[in-house]
Design a protein that fits this description.
The complex is a heterodimer. By secondary structure, chain A is of the alpha/beta class. Helices cover 30% and strands 24% of the residues of chain A. Chain A is built from eleven helices and twelve strands. In chain A, the strands form two sheets. Chain A has an eight-stranded mixed beta sheet with strand order 6-7-8-3-9-10-12-11, sandwiched between helices. A four-stranded antiparallel beta sheet of chain A has the order 2-1-4-5, covered by helices on one side. The longest helix of chain A is centred in the middle third of the chain and has 18 residues. The N and C termini of chain A lie far apart (42 Å). Chain B is mainly α. Chain B folds into two domains: 71 residues, no CATH class; 237 residues, Orthogonal Bundle (MetI-like fold), CATH 1.10.3720.10. Chain B contains 16 helices and two strands. Chain B has a two-stranded antiparallel sheet. In chain B, a hairpin with a 4-residue loop joins strand 1 and strand 2. In chain B, helix 11 runs antiparallel to helix 15 and helix 15 crosses helix 16. The longest helix of chain B is centred in the middle third of the chain and has 38 residues. The two termini of chain B are 18 Å apart. In chain B, 31% of the residues are buried. The chains are: A alpha/beta, B mainly alpha. At the A-B interface, helix 2, helix 4 and helix 7 of A face helix 10, helix 11 and helix 16 of B.
Chain lengths: 340, 322
């Protein structure tokens, strides 16, 4: 399928998103100006280490971050006839709740704790159906059961009345997908949906997501730190580091032609099957710094092996377009602004 | 369950007779202080009459036999009546006071706990926390005295005890029931506040814990309203420890509070147990303690059943064991 992005409408456009969390020690800035857009039917991979702000970014779309998070920027969501800035909606207001679960929904890393232990799986999925589709008990149960069957839950009628502890991890993830997709949302946010699962189950879940994506023609924001999964699932990749997107390109481009030193490091740290060299995997020194009182410089400066002294520790790199489909935030490719 | 209760009864009896002396010796000490003179024969005679000259395990054996086969819990030396009659005398009132107090405790603390959790670190949260701790830390009898004093100053009526003179003479009827309820206010507040803070803290901590759970986020992500999240998701899971806390309340319903009851002159079971222990009125004290123990066991059973009804995971494990 042609995934050229220009001729497609973006389902969601995140523009210069910032998230601040006031704390006793100062203001934490885990997300510092993130912009991306996801087009219809497209899968965007958001890749980065733990703590780089990818989960907060995704939760900001649904407005389900903690109340003490302060957000800035715009999140434009395309409805049939108008565009809605999700950040303008009040926390927990009816408008944002109409988006959640119905137009954009989310699946989570740990399916084992994503369901309330005291209600049956069916009731919890059905709650979503009844909130957004129909309040008719018989009809909604039909829709729910149908979705449970579609995600591959065998014996759905019996499973409907079972509790989460009677499900296996993989089955729970299927149930969670059923809950997220029961209203046929335009956007699915998948926050590391396979990290907590066995490898064999992982593959099944990914296949399931891909086939359902095609069937429902939805867009996916796929958050992960697993580059193997990205190659399998995504059309485009945005690499995030310390609250910023440092490189964005198509999957092929990212793997074949990574530009940012951080992306190069990430790709280099993946073991390639079939290569016979016994050399050690590459690893990036250090850890992501805490996003508290950050100095004005490139966030990756301390860990970067090709840093330019006097530039990278003095200025913050902006976005440089390498071609239509590949952008990077790095002074190595931004000769003009080095002295600016 | 039955072995547990039997063992408890044995231990209770053993401990009650442990202090040196018995009812006769404490009775004689009291009477001697008032100038009565007893000869050794009189003392021995009294002991034999009460059956206190036999070793304690024989006494225990006869006591248990009477309970099991005749439903006879023994004789209260100081009331000069069967133990069971003494207990029944005050049972109704004790249960009434305790139940109203319990209702007060939960009616006040559940909403406050939920509010505090939903508005963590707000002015209201701090205020309720402060009041709650004050209620827990201030000795109940002090609060009782202050409230009784305040009520006297403001209304001119000394609200001491649950009955007015007039009620004691004519009994409680519809026309003076209002007065009786008025007299209940202070005891309920005094006895209730001590438990209230504990429940507030439990509910608050549980609710906060639930709010950071993944399933709360899932619920929010599918568009459930905040109100429904609080009551349907968080409270449902947070209520468990509160329910298991109920297992102890059955026995406290039976006894009621002791020190506050003495201060406020309430005719409930607590003070009876207190004086019975003081006077070594062993069958009375033993019976009250035994009934308490039985009620704790029953209470635990009931709260387990309630938890099973509330929480499918517990139900599930029970089925597996069968």
């Amino acid at each position: 399928m042609d995934r050229r992005t220009e001729d497609r409408v973006p389902v969601v456009q995140v523009k210069n998103l910032t998230i601040d969390i006031p704390m006793d020690e100062g203001v934490l800035t885990p997300v510092r100006g993130v912009s991306f857009s996801i087009h219809e039917g497209e899968t965007l991979g958001l890749v980065g280490e733990s703590g780089c702000g990818k989960s907060l970014t995704s939760k900001a779309i649904l407005g389900i971050n903690d109340k003490k998070c302060r957000t800035g920027g715009e999140i434009l969501f395309s409805e049939a006839d108008h565009v809605l800035d999700l950040l303008k909606l009040k926390y927990g207001s009816e408008e944002i709740r109409k988006i959640r679960g119905e137009r954009a929904s989310m699946i989570f890393q740990e399916p084992m704790v994503a369901f309330h232990p005291m209600y049956t799986i069916g009731a919890q999925i059905n709650e979503c159906t009844r909130l957004h589709i129909t309040s008719d008990k018989v009809k909604s149960k039909e829709i729910t059961l149908d979705m449970m069957k579609r995600v591959g839950i065998a014996n759905a009628e019996k499973r409907y009345d079972q509790y989460p502890h009677e499900f296996s991890g993989g089955m729970l993830q299927r149930a969670l997908i059923a809950m997220a997709l029961v209203c046929r949302p335009a956007l699915l946010i998948a926050d590391e949906p396979t990290t907590a699962l066995d490898v064999t189950i992982q593959a099944q879940i990914l296949e399931l997501m891909k086939s359902l994506q095609k069937e429902f023609d939805m867009s996916i924001l796929f958050i992960t730190h697993d580059l193997g999964v990205v190659a399998n699932m995504c059309d485009r990749v945005a690499v995030m580091y310390l609250g910023k997107i440092v490189e964005e390109a198509s999957v092929r481009e990212i793997y074949k032609n990574p530009k940012h030193p951080y992306t190069k490091g990430l790709i280099g740290s993946v073991h390639k099957v079939g290569t016979h060299n016994q050399s050690k995997l590459f690893s990036i020194d250090g850890t992501v710094p805490l996003a508290l009182n950050l100095p004005k410089r490139c966030g990756f400066y301390e860990r970067c092996s090709s840093r330019i002294e006097g530039v990278c520790n003095r200025l913050e790199p902006g976005r440089t377009m390498l071609d239509d489909d590949h952008s990077v935030n790095c002074f190595l490719y931004d000769k003009e602004n080095i002295h600016g | 369950m039955i072995p547990t209760v039997l063992i408890i009864s044995f231990v209770v009896f053993f401990i009650i007779q442990l202090p040196p002396g018995d009812y006769v010796s404490s009775y004689i000490a009291k009477m001697s202080a008032e100038g009565e003179i007893f000869t050794q024969e009189m003392i021995d005679e009294m002991r034999a009459e009460y059956g206190l000259d036999r070793p304690w395990y024989i006494q225990y054996f006869y006591w248990m036999m009477d309970i099991l086969f005749h439903g006879d819990f023994g004789y209260s030396f100081s009331y000069l009546r069967p133990v069971w009659d003494v207990i029944m005398d005050r049972l109704g009132l004790t249960i009434a006071v305790s139940l109203i107090t319990m209702a007060f405790t939960y009616l006040v603390s559940l909403p406050i706990g939920i509010y505090s959790a939903n508005h963590q670190y707000s002015v209201g949260d701090y205020l309720f926390t402060f009041i709650g701790f004050l209620g827990m830390a201030a000795p109940n009898f002090l609060l009782a005295i202050i409230l009784m004093y305040a009520s006297y100053v403001w209304t001119g009526t000394p609200y001491i005890g649950l009955f007015s003179q007039e009620m004691l003479q004519n009994g409680i009827h519809l026309y003076n029931f209002g007065e009786f309820l008025k007299r209940l206010i202070i005891p309920v507040i005094v006895i209730g506040t001590s438990g209230t803070c504990g429940v507030i803290r439990t509910v608050r901590a549980q609710m906060l814990d639930e709010q950071s759970k993944q399933y709360t986020l899932t619920a929010r992500a599918k568009g459930v309203s905040e109100r429904k999240i609080t009551y349907k998701y968080c409270l449902r899971a947070a209520i468990n420890p509160v329910v298991s806390g109920l297992s102890n309340s059955l026995s406290s319903i039976f006894t009621g509070s002791t020190i506050s009851a003495i201060v406020m002159n309430l005719a409930i079971q607590g003070p009876v147990l207190y004086t019975a222990l003081k006077n070594q009125d062993m069958y009375l004290a033993g019976t009250i303690l035994l009934v308490q123990a039985v009620l704790i066991v029953i209470g635990t059973l009931l709260s387990d059943i309630a938890l099973g009804l509330l929480d499918p995971r517990i139900r599930f494990e029970q089925q597996k064991e069968d």
